[in-house]
Request: fold
Amino acid sequence: MHKRIAVAAAAVLVACGGGSSWVDPTSGSFSTQDSAEVMVMVSGAFGAAVQRQPGPQLRNALTEPVNASVLCEASGNVTVNGSMDASCNAAGSSCSFNGGLALQLNSCTSTTGYVGDGGLNIGASGSVDSVANTFSLHETIQGGITVTHNGTLVGTCGINVTVDLSSNGTTDTVHVSGTVCRQPIAQ
Reply:
């Protein structure tokens, strides 16, 4: 379950979007391309970090620590720390989960020359049922990342995204809203 949550979160992060009491730290001049490159860098780093985490052995109640550090695409690294709490039925086939993660980019460099430094807070909650083959995830992503491109400072990119993902085993539904570098996410 843990890997499915993390991989789903990373997949929708590339398409990102909003929250309520957000003070956007964005400064500088970000083009649409810059914003897209930032999200590709962040989602790739997050996906790589959570893939390194071992999947939990689900029991009735479980707090699963998350602590991973991996290299970024070209250079630098990303760390993900926090915990996810799960509560499952006796059979372990139906679980609900919630938790918080802190993602920290440390000179995380993409192959296209973008470098990110800074942190994002990620809150997630949802449920999974292996018998009914259903899955739901609600996620909020907020923070600011200092971005350079080919050695030139672009600015600080504020990321404020809300993601809702659900699956009934046949149909997957994703709703994303918010802003990346003050640019609204088109869905």
Q: What stands out?
A: The first strand starts at residue 27 and ends at 28.
